[in-house]
Structure formats: structure tokens, C-alpha cells
Amino acid sequence: MTGYDDRDGFIWMDGKLVEWRSANVHILTHALHYASAVFEGERCYNGKIFKGHEHSVRLLKSGELLDMPIPYTAEEIDAAKEATLKANGLTDAYIRAIAWRGAGPDMGVASLQNPVKLAVACWTWGSYYGDAKFKGAKLDIAKWKRPSPETIPSEAKAAGLYMICTMSKHAAQAKGCSDAMMFDYRGYVAEATGANIFFVKDGEVHTPKADCFLNGLTRQTVIGMLKDMQIKVHERHIMPEELEGFEQCWLTGTAAEVTPVGQIGDYNFEVGDLTRRVATEYERLVRA
Known about the structure:
Elements: E1 10-13, E2 16-19, H1 30-34, E3 37-45, E4 48-49, H2 52-65, H3 74-88, E5 93-101, E6 116-123, H4 132-135, E7 137-141, H5 163-174, E8 179-183, E9 189-192, E10 196-201, E11 204-208, H6 217-228, E12 233-236, E13 248-253, E14 257-264, E15 267-268, H7 273-286
Parallel strand pairs: 7-8, 7-14, 11-12
Antiparallel strand pairs: 1-2, 1-6, 3-4, 3-5, 5-6, 8-9, 10-11, 10-13, 13-14, 14-15
């Protein structure tokens, strides 16, 4: 399988479609040294980007939170994504929009003189967790914790927030797991490295309160679906010892979609009827 830098196709960069292998940045790009980048992950189904505009709006908000205003409107970002899909001839794809502080007069922590750049790429990407989407993912428990919102704006989808996720997932994969579940800085259950988490007990759904991690658009969509299905949803702080009492578990995210979880550390969960129903309804919704 070729690397992501060596493919055919086109990537949109600041208003132009650039040949894939030529879509490069300078080595002294600020984002490479100081993580001054925000991004979105989206999926296109049957030619339609699911919640594409909401993702564009969130990208702008993330840039604002990191003091790097993105010089495009949400509508212009929407159009860039559509142009990128068309140029690559894709109707079912994963889309990555990313904004970053580029190279410029500043090469230190401060970077106000450096331009904010924007790019959009898309590619065909199957199930994020492979066959775990059907039989239930196996999760490790990460040693790293989601930080306090007093340390960084946790509601931003920012590149720097993912480094502990990368390390946690590497450790999980070394143990034969698909991913890792993380606690937050207070010791509450938080999320997986790139997906939100839900639990089922006695026919009701429990999910961690999104007060120190990203309130995912897929998470919000699934909560809305559950409420439409007349299923009670508790958004609350969840203690580690509660894991033993939950019957079912699943992950949500643009890449993960709805993926059942069969095991977290020493705790086991069934891939039950509600989990399957939510996964089926989500698939129907995104392809409607």
C-alpha cells in the first residue's frame, strides 16, 4: 500500500487544486514545530457530505479558539470540499480539511505575522476499526488522561490535542487492541483516542459529559437518534468502577461511525440489540 504522500489525485490548497504529490509545505512551517493546526474529518456518502456545513463551521470555531482566524467562510470551505471530491472523482470518501499557521516572518512561539493556510484532501477509506465494526472492538485503558480545559481549549479539534492519543493507540496496538479508552484529568471515563463512547445498562444509555473533550458531531447525531427512539440518554460523569455494570458499549465518530465494543481492559460487553440498532439507523441516516 502506497504512502499518503505518493498517490494519484488532487488536493485543494488555498484556492487551487494541486497535484497530490506536489501538495507540500516548507520545513519551517509554524504548525510543524508548534502544532498550530486544526482540522476536520468528514465522510461523503453517495455524493453527499454528512453534516458538511457543520464541520466547516466547527473548523472556523477551532481556528478562532487557537487564535488563528481562518481566512475563508464556511460556505467557501464547503465549496472547496465539493471541488476536491469532484476533482478526484469520488462519491464515497473520507474528507480531511486542515488549517495551519504557515511559514512566515515568525519562527518562535508567537506567529501572528505568519499566514493561516487551508487545504482539503479526500480519499477512499473503509471501516476505521476493520472487522471490529462487526464483532466488537477490543480497547486498552490508556495511561494518559484528557487534560483540563484550563490547559487548552478542549472544544477545538486541534492537532496538538492528539499527541497523547497517538501514544495511547500505539500502546494499545502493541497489546493487540484496536484502540484505547481514556480517563479525564479528574479520573472520569472520557473517550477513546479518536471517538466518543456510549454505554448501555437496563435499556438506558449513558455517555460521558463532554466538558473536557470534543463533543463530536457524530456523538450529537447519535444522542438525537436515541431520543427519537424514545431511549433515555444520561450525559454525565462516569466513574471507572461503573464499567463492570454496563452491558453494551459502542464508539462514535466520523471515521469510526458506530462501532461496537466487546472489551475494555478486563471488562466485557455484548454486541447487543440496541448497539446493532443504533449502528443500522446511523447507516440509514447518513445514506438517506
